[in-house]
């Protein structure tokens, strides 16, 4: 058998691969080893890619409840008036009128209109903002915020004090309610502080899977207790980055480093609804210009059989022209077919268009909608 | 590591079971474990000529793709059609229900290029 070519999960932010001892570890590293997880480098961290198996962990998430260690992600605490702090100009989503206990998804941009990171902003108090960023881009993001926040703001990087677990799946609400029944009232993309195992912590009804689920932020040093307590419930299974990637891809969610990079604007990635063109923000002029004529479009596509497209594969038209590139690809258990996201020349970025992927154009696929799986429990009413 | 004692093995982690002049081919426990959940198997056509140690099939998992190399020179006489709808058989039963192809071979000489179970076991230890 030829060499195993891991594809699909890259370094996560286009960072150079580090050696084993340079990789950072979350406080659950030993727990992952105990559970016989396969560990891989991801965004500068050594993370579990799978425990039982990617497809099994995927099934647990869609049908039951899965637990992900996402402590590698970064968290910032910013205090200051929304406008005078400069924060409103740094992020693309509207935040001036954001109510408390609500969170919003958006981006921070570089001067060329490319994406420095995608992130979620939580309005904790009128003048207090909790921001969650990707694990591989934390340092880059912190530099950006510190550079452009005014002296009317205070900035604290609390990433290494803050661990996070994602509890995801249709059973997640009942399971977490055992720790505090109040979590049941959380609506989608809202959050609050709850007493969980004696700690007052932020629990957000958000996730990256398309299922009902929660992100639980917990003190770094104590998160092992929460991890073990949750796993004591036989319905909860640990799940790794491999399953996480399949789940998010089925939902058409972008992964930083693939659909969004320093060289790709959120507009090109089809995410204009998270950009507030009614306000002023860094690189707005570039995006306004881009809006007038995008040359390529991010689309979803479905393979005709079980073969999976892979990131970085080229895309060709029926008439042999190179028309794009795959940004993410995987097998979709929901569709029983290969699925992918990628940039395609605008005129051919049309649902139903036949495309050919990879060397030798061996993989035939059809441009489809971006959301491949629509049956999730994500928006279960509280 | 589960090994079938009577099989022959290649350095690329294929196994071969010989019966008369027909060889059944699959991938070993080591290979299926390293690949993870297999989602697709691309097998050759019936009657295709294959050469020892040349790539003749591909197996894809969620996270990786891998070439499969023919352990013997000959002609493909049967492929495991069950794998089309159920490629996971390779993970669940790599030495049995997850077989890939049957090759009709002409020369027995080539078998000396393959390893027996003990040699394969040592080989696995050497690659760590």
Explain this structure.
The complex is a heterodimer of chains A (382) and B (128). Chain A is of the alpha+beta class and 382 residues long. In chain A, 17% of the residues lie in helices and 32% in strands. Chain A has helices spanning 29-34, 54-63, 87-90, 138-148, 172-177, 223-232, 241-250, 284-292, and strands at residues 5-6, 38-42, 45-50, 65-69, 74-79, 103-109, 115-125, 128-133, 154-157, 162-168, 191-196, 199-204, 213-219, 236-238, 296-303, 314-316, 322-332, 337-345, 354-357, 363-368. In chain A, the strands form four sheets. Chain A has a six-stranded mixed β-sheet with strand order 11-12-13-10-4-14, sandwiched between helices. In chain A, helix 2 crosses helix 7. Chain B has four helices and nine strands; from the N terminus they run βββαβββββααβα. In chain B, the strands form two sheets. Chain B has a six-stranded antiparallel β-sheet with strand order 1-2-3-9-8-5. A three-stranded antiparallel β-sheet of chain B has the order 4-6-7. Chain B is globular and about 35 Å long. The model of chain B has no long low-confidence stretch (mean pLDDT 93). Classes of the chains: A alpha+beta (382), B alpha+beta (128). Chain A binds chain B through residues 1-9, 49-50, 53-56, 242, 246, 305-308, 310, 330-331, 338, and chain B through 12-14, 27, 31, 34-37, 39-40, 42, 55, 59-60, 62-69, 87-88, 91. Strand 1 of chain A pairs antiparallel with strand 7 (64-69) of chain B, so a sheet runs across the interface.
